[in-house]
Amino acid sequence: MILHLTKKLADKLKLSPFVEADIDEFFSWRANFIHEDGLRFVVIMNDASRFTIVINEAKADKLKKLPELFLKTLRETLLSIGVNHEVVARYIEESGEIKYSKNSDKKKTAQLNKNVINAWWAMRDLSDDVEISLYVSSMIYNITGLDEVVVPMEKMLKMLSKYGLPVRKCRAFDLNVRLDLDGRDAVRRLRVPADSSFVPLHKLMQKAFGWLDYHLYSFEMFEEWSDDYYAIADVELVMSEEDLDVNPDTVAMKGLKLSDYIPKYRKILYKYDFGDDWHHYIEVESIIEECDEDLPLLISGIGDTPPEDVGGPRGFEDFLRIINDSSHEEYKETIKWANSQRWKPFDFDTVARRVNENYGYISSTTKSKTVVPDETIEETILKPIDTARNILDYMEKNPDRWGTVIAPEPQWICDNCGFPAKVIVDDNHAKEIGKLCVNCYNRLMAEYTGSSIPDIVPTQISVKGRNGKPVEFEVEFLVFANGMSLTAIEMGKRKRRADVYGAIGEDFNNMLETLKNRIKKVLSVKYMGKDGYISGAKAVGYIGYNCERDACDIVIDGMPYSWAELEMNVTAHEGWKIKIEFASTGDELD
Fold first, then answer.
1. Most Cβ neighbours (<10 Å): which of 31, 261, 434, 514?
2. Which range among 112-116, 138-142, 361-365 shows the weakest confidence by mean pLDDT?
3. Which residues pair with 170 in a beta bridge?
4. What are phi and psi of 409, to 5 degrees?
5. By percentage, how much of the chain surpasses pLDDT 90?
6. What angle do CA 412, 418, 422 make, to 5 degrees?
7. ∠487-493-495 over CA atoms, to 5°?
8. What domains are defined for the chain?
9. DSSP string computed for 302-337
């Protein structure tokens, strides 16, 4: 096995010289070290599949053990999703001794840097190496120049089939989980890999019961249930080592597997939100020694679950009473609040899909799987929009009563596919119709406008700067009711940008070529000085929309300037006059 190290990581490890690398890409990995914003982590990407392993909190002591930590995290990540133990062992054995080589492939470096960004994104919510690795490896990529969509996890699993063994084969637990709601209990039956840890189990519980992961949680182990509500558990697992200061008798759950405690303990209490104090009673129903399914799975389910911060079981009872009585004085306000909490009545298919998904990606083999719910749940008065088709129907029926808001960051989940959402469709009065990821939004808008969109859109472009070194830009394509846009934003600290706008039906390849030319101008021409003032006799720019401020900026040298900053530039030079020339959106500005 070869690890191609970036210069930054090689310098950190103080490694030299390197071996010459000529090896099957399946056993070739590329690694980078990041120390920024208080984070220190290593990202290691497989050249053939882009499957990625992340080692967080990579301080000096961890870096000294990088090969061992890499193999350990790789093994645990694959086992946590139910990959056959024997397949994992065969791959690691065939990989052989880890050797280091110099990283020199620019294209793969660009792909690695994309995964660095995804890892940084994941670390805002996750700290466990396996969880972060799963997040990054589950992202969907369109690669420039290739007519394929790549999901690293799926591609890695396909490549592991070379050994002629079942790729999916693991020990699994069937869990019966009951959320105590004082007589309105909600029940979910789940199948999970035995080698999964408690952090993924927490994430699974959030999906299965519709929580938003706002609050603290813990797992308590019992050999038998007690009638005492405040019974002391045999073992209590807490979120982090910091919690041990509060109760030294507890155990930090990071890195602990379900198989470390099951089947000794077959009864587990999952507590979530210590204010509302939700109690989920987990019982191990059965143990499957050789499970070949894509896990985790929702086997069956019944019962609606509460919205976040509703006030415990009594608050949930009041909530249900109000939303089922349209004459209640608090009905409209409660419905509005429920939507803000993303509350929905239980729908088996929706929850089953979210349980099985890996941070937005659902295995292609799982989409055809059919699991029968215990009971069909009737819809309540609150009927949210669940799919892009419903959103499209609303738009077509109400052509003058909808608009879109582009979120600065994807904070929500797409109503259509479960991927991180970036576009909010509303009724022009701040009432949300639905949330969509960029891909689903573009497909919806193409159907709405009757236009065609390219099957493959590059996610990044590399252009040489004035010093001859390549500069990487992230690319985003959006379709609107009256046009299309291509935006490129520099990857790194400077965040220079270039935009191209076109009419509906505009040739995408022409727009892409124009975008590349504008990026080249951004990198080759400089009008603004370091002090933020125009340095020469003129400056050329264009008006671009700033979604973070919901306003238009003047973009010069690829950097946005507000109109107030432009005024500051003009008034700083006595006697200056400003001349504005208008051009069509497709024109080059020279």
1. 434
2. 361-365
3. 291
4. -140, 145
5. 31
6. 40
7. 20
8. 2-163 (3.30.420), 170-356 (3.10.290.30), 388-449 (no CATH), 460-571 (no CATH)
9. ES--PPTTS-HHHHHHHHHHHHT-TTSTTHHHHHHH
Mean pLDDT, residues 16-30: 81
pLDDT at 417: 63
Token pair listed for 29? 């990995």
Q: Is 50 exceeded by the pLDDT of residue 373?
A: no
Could you give the CA distance from residue 12 to residue 128 in angstroms, rounded to a whole number? 23
Q: How far is CA 216 from CA 229, 341, 541, in A?
A: 19, 18, 49
Whether 377 shows a pLDDT value over 80: the answer reads no
Angle between helices 312-323 and 331-340 (to 10 degrees): 120
Q: What is the pLDDT of residue 297?
A: 93
Query: Which of 265-274, 441-450, 490-499 is predicted most confidently?
Result: 265-274
Place of tokens 């039956």: 189
Report the candidate in 446, 517, 447 with the shortest Cα–Cα distance to residue 488. 517
All residues at 6 or more sequence positions from 318 whose CB lies less than 8 Å from its CB, including other chains: 311
Burial class (CB in 10 A: 0-12, 13-18, 19+), 5: buried
pLDDT in tens, 306-352: 999 999 999 999 999 999 998 999 998 998 888 888 888 898 988 99
Tokens 């637990």 map to which residue?
A: 173
- The pLDDT tens digits for 230-242 are 788 899 998 877 7
367 contact partners, CB below 8 Å, separation of at least 6:
none
d(C-alpha 118, C-alpha 136), whole Å: 6
Kindly provide the b/e burial profile for residues 263-302, where b requires at least 16 CB atoms within 10 angstroms of the residue's own CB.
eebbbbbbbbbeebebebbbebeeeeeebebbbbbbbbbb
Are 91 and 77 in contact by the 8 Å Cβ rule? The answer is no
User: What is the rounded distance in angstroms from the CA atom of residue 507 to the CA atom of residue 488?
Assistant: 18
Which is it for strands 432-436 and 551-556: parallel, antiparallel or unpaired? unpaired
Q: First vs last Cα of the chain: how many Å apart? A: 51
Residue 255 CB partners (closer than 8 Å, separation 6+) = 128, 197
DSSP E strand stretches across 312-443: 403-406, 412-413, 420-421, 423-426, 432-436
Is residue 69 predicted with pLDDT exceeding 90?
yes
Report helix, strand or coil for 138. Answer: coil
Q: What's the one-letter identity of residue 376?
A: T
133/460: higher pLDDT: 133
pLDDT of residue 520: 82
Among 209, 211, 204, 139, residue whose Cα is nearest residue 355: 204
Assigned token pair, 342: 């993303």
Query: Quick one: pLDDT at residue 349?
Result: 87
Measured in whole angstroms, how far is the alpha carbon of residue 544 from the centre of its chain? 27
For residue 425, count other CB atoms closer than 10 A to its CB: 23
